[in-house]
Amino acid sequence: MSEEKKLIDLSGIIAITGQPGLYKVVAQSKNGIIVESLSDKKRSNIYSSTKVSTLSDISMFTTGDDKPIAEIITSVFEKEKGGACIDSKSDDKAIEKYFSEVLPEYDKDRVYVSNMRKLFSWYTSLQKTNSLKYKEEKAETEEEKAKTVKTAETKSIKKASVKSGAKTKTSAGVKKTAGVRKTGSA
Known about the structure:
By secondary structure, the protein is of the alpha+beta class. Helix content is about 35%, strand content about 15%.
């Protein structure tokens, strides 16, 4: 991005198929993830087979490049100066008019009123729970972060092999478990 526009931080916020509202990822569990509802703060376990969408990964169709939800929510936030947006249960014409003010270049053939309603209900949920905060300036670039993670993985593999006394080999992206003994011949 050539322009340094601050975006609303949507990291860790998810929508779960078949369940109303938005959730914040709290931790990983043995069988999936533990989430906390933004509206009532109740925690629950979501199994790994459940379809989950991370808000920061969702985008909407435009006549040019797809626009991330974070940019659209930021536009709504700035238009309303942090206040409430249009009610997601308003009539179709009002929803379309409001959405075209927020995102004038949206693809009218592929973005449906139901998509707009979902966006506005998510915005309302985030606004009511005071979750609309700008992203902090990143100290590290994505590339530096990837190097840090890779270094940490390498160190943990080396520690595991030193503790168990087993030799482990890693190749690009493949991790082998240290300390596992094979029995029999292959």
